[in-house]
Design brief:
With 344 residues, the chain is of the alpha/beta class. 43% of the residues lie in helices and 18% in strands. Bound molecules: 5'-O-[(R)-(carboxyoxy)(hydroxy)phosphoryl]adenosine (KG4) and zinc ion (ZN). 5'-O-[(R)-(carboxyoxy)(hydroxy)phosphoryl]adenosine binds next to helix 5 and helix 6.
Length: 344
């Protein structure tokens, strides 16, 4: 099947409606040919969860129920397609919050039945791996992907669109989780990543030598010791400038991620490094990735912030590739909160 990237043509027969409700973003998008984003609508629930200091699953599920239909309608209107132009409906089936996932999966199945088109169950992590291609259609594989979000931290060797290997993952906190927990301790609210990122811009990243766990040791990560170290530092030095603490913490996270990704790229002959997931919006991580790629002769793929954080365009794109490879998913497929990344 042809890929519609770059030539401006609309492959309407290949238009997929994607739905994303795995956590606290209600999102819908229409993507043609697995590449051409005709619309992408994201309704963030961050305001609802901020007062609790984190995502409350029950609140997330209820908000998805309220928001999904208007969000899907908007995505369809903005795509300028008719319902009858939609060739398949793809939804994130996991991993994520089960009550949240079920809203999107049920809506997708209902629409697929009503429109008599295939339903495609999409792995949320696989969708993140496809996000960079929507910004960079000419992305050259193989690449090492640093997949960093609130729930996951993985180093993935991506050989082909649907062929990849997880080289390593976090043994405890995800990178985004560490940002959120440190920010919560500092009283900076939720989500913590963007605030720490902003504060770090005014701080000295060499002010405090926070630990770099497992820096030279395999492909896995550990961030819970770093988080504890930051909290202990703040207890011992209550007057420490928070900008310096934030910048030094952020530097430690980015340092470990980049050190391992560079080593992985060399060991596996990757052509580039690619960022994915919400933490990929981090300005220091982006800057260090660019610097590392320049130094190592690698291509740097840094998706836009909109593509880094949860969205449904990446779900529709991954759904398109899965549909070509595996065909439709059975309607008996349910939500799987602990779904792993499929490895070929
Ligand atoms: O991928 P995502 O939107 O949702 C999932 O977890 O799947 O990622 C959200 C995470 C949160 O932990 C948030 O604090 C973090 O991404 N994040 C950032 C930044 N923007 C969002 N972390 C560091 N720096 C940022 N600029
Ligand atoms: Zn995500």
């Amino acid at each position: 099947m042809q890929n519609g990237a770059g030539n401006g043509a609309r492959h309407l027969g290949d238009a997929i409606l994607g739905i994303e409700t795995s956590c606290d973003e209600t999102a819908a998008a229409v993507v043609a040919g697995g590449q051409q984003v005709l619309s992408s609508v994201v309704s963030s629930q961050v305001d609802l969860h901020a007062r609790y200091g984190g995502v409350v699953p029950e609140v997330a599920g209820r908000a998805h129920v309220e928001r999904l239909v208007p969000v899907m309608s908007q995505a369809l209107v903005e795509s300028a397609l008719e319902d009858s132009d939609i060739a398949a409906v793809a939804a994130t089936a996991g991993p994520g919050l089960v009550g949240a996932l079920l809203v999107g999966v049920s809506a997708a199945k209902a629409l697929a039945l009503a429109w008599d088109v295939p339903f495609v169950a999409v792995n949320h992590l696989e969708a993140h791996l496809h996000a960079a291609f929507l910004d960079e259609p000419s992305l050259e594989l193989p690449v090492v992907v640093i997949l960093v979000s609130g729930g996951h931290t993985m180093l993935v060797m991506m050989e082909d669109r649907l062929r990849y290997r997880v080289l390593g993952a976090t043994l405890d906190d995800a990178a985004g989780e560490a940002f959120d927990k440190v920010a919560r301790y500092m009283g900076l609210g939720y989500p913590g990543g963007p605030v720490i990122d902003r504060l770090s811009g005014q701080g000295d990243r060499d002010a405090i030598a926070f630990p770099r766990a497992m820096l030279h040791d395999g492909w896995n990560f550990s961030f819970s010791g770093l988080k504890t170290s930051v909290i202990n530092h703040l207890r011992r030095h209550p007057d420490a400038p928070i900008e310096d603490v934030a910048a030094s913490f952020q530097e430690a996270v980015a340092d470990v991620l980049l050190a391992k990704a560079r080593r992985a790229a060399a060991a596996h002959n990757a052509r580039g490094l690619c960022l994915a997931g919400g933490v990929a919006a981090n300005s220091r991580l982006r800057e260090m990735t660019l610097d590392a790629c320049t130094a190592d002769g690698l291509a740097a793929y840094l998706p836009s912030r909109a593509m880094c954080t949860d969205n449904a365009a990446m779900v529709a794109a991954a759904g398109w590739w899965r549909l070509q490879a595996d065909g439709p998913s059975p309607l008996t497929v349910g939500a799987d909160p602990s779904l792993g990344l499929p490895e070929d």
